[in-house]
Amino acid sequence: MQRIRQKTTLADVVLMSLAFAFAGCGSGSLATPATPVAQNASVTGQHNLVLSSTNGRGTTNIYTNFTQTGTKFTGAPNTLVCPSNDLSQCEGGDASVISITPSGTVSGANVTMMISFPSTMGADTVTMVGTATGINLAGSYTDSLGDAGTWAASAASSLGGNYDGTFNSTPNPLLIAPTILIALTQDASFHLSGTANILNSLCISSLTLSGEAIGEAFSLTDAASKAHIIALPTGNTFTFSYSFAPTAASCAGDFGRGVVTNNKSPWDY
After folding, report:
1. Between the ranges 20-29, 32-41, 59-68, where is the mean pLDDT highest?
2. Rounded CA separation 222/194 (Å)
3. Do 204 and 181 form a contact (C-beta atoms < 8 A)?
């Protein structure tokens, strides 16, 4: 009898072990796979935005530098807003005069952004919704003045490099436009520094420059010469305006326009 009890106990243990094993396999087959978490879009660095009205109000270019923390991102306070990409219509570019700061949020690939700025029709607030595809953003917008349309944003590259072109005075144009050669470096905080050599000008031969990259636009100042330059990308070139303060030692009160090309090295691509 004792031998029979031992055999029965051993058989019971084996059966119970098999039962637990099969039960474990069954519960594993019913487990629900984990749902992958969508990665939030990254909206950082230099960007160019273009608003295209579907109500006949043309285009508006916006140049800014974004920083992002978590799901929130903010543009630079010196953001430039330029209807028709026209220098004479630009607002912003100098936070000490007027601060234009876009801001928004991301949720996965979805992007929402708002920006307020003065316009010829009054203060305007634009609300943009869209999606991110890689480093590019696109979607639709509405504004507080009754406009609507589409928008797109693309990342801009560093503005460090060599530029050459010509410029001329608006009040006192020369028959032969002066030549300007600019060399710029850019740091990780979008600060620019460099020099400009000028040929054929009657009042200035060089500038020592400092300023900011704003998207693919830039703003430069020579504090000693009291000169200011602001430039916008126009295709493969940059159109710029310049001005000298009325109290400048040279070129006092002069202002005008010019065009330069960024002569990138083949190694920059």
Report:
1. 59-68
2. 10
3. no
CA 173, 174, 177, 182 torsion-angle sign: negative
Rounded CA separation 130/140 (Å): 6
Q: Which uninterrupted H or E stretch holds 40?
A: none
Work out the burial of residue 152: count CB atoms within 10 Å of its CB; fewer than 13 is exposed, 13-18 middle, 19 or more buried.
middle
What is the Cβ-side half-sphere exposure of residue 40, based on CA atoms within 13 angstroms? 15
User: At 10, is the pLDDT very low, low, confident or very high (cuts 50, 70, 90)?
Assistant: very low
Residue pair 66/44 in contact by the 8 Å Cβ criterion: yes
- pTM for this model (two decimals): 0.84
Name all domains of the chain by residue range, CATH numbers in brackets. 45-155 (2.40.128.120), 161-268 (2.40.160.90)
Pair of tokens at residue 15: 């059966």
The answer to whether 21 touches 13, Cβ cutoff 8 Å, is no
> Is the Cβ–Cβ distance between 81 and 117 less than 8 Å?
yes
68: Cβ contacts below 8 Å, ≥ 6 apart: 42, 43, 44, 74, 106
